[in-house]
Amino acid sequence: MTPTEAAARTLTRRGLRISVAALAALAGVYVLALGYTPVEARQGVAQKIFYLHVPAAWCALMAFSLVGLTSALYLWLHDPRLDRFAAASAEVGVAFSAVMLTTGPIWAKPIWGTWWTWDARLTLTLFLFFLFIGYLALRASLHDPQERARFSAVVGILGMLLVPFIHLSVYLFRTLHPQPVVLKPSAPSLPPEMLRTLLISMLVFTLLYLGLVTLRYGLALAEEARDEAADAAR
Amino acid sequence: MPESLRLALAVAGKDIRAELRSRTALLSAVVFAALVLVVFNFARDPTAIAAADLAPSVLWVTFALAAMVALNRAFTVEREHGAIDGLLLAPVPRGALFLGKLLANLAFVGTVEAVTLPLFVLFFNVDLTAALPGIIGVTALATVGFVSVGTVFSAMAVRTRFAELMLPVLLLPFMVPPIIGAVQVTARLLAGRPLSEMLGWLRLLALYDVVFVTLCTMAFGAVVDE
Amino acid sequence: MPSRDGEPLLAARGLRRSFGRVRVLRDVDLTLAAGDVLAVAGPNGAGKSTLLRVLAGLSRPSAGEVRVEGRRLAGDPEARRAIGLLSHHSLLYDDLTLLENLAFAARLYGSPHPAETARAALAAAGLSDRAGDQPRRLSRGLLQRAAIARALLHGPRVLLLDEPFTALDAAAAERLRATLAERREAGLGVLVVTHHLGEVWDVATRVAVMVGGRWAAEEPREGPLDAFLPRYREWIGA
Question: Rounded to whole angstroms, how far apart are CA atoms B186 and B61?
Answer without folding.
Answer: 12
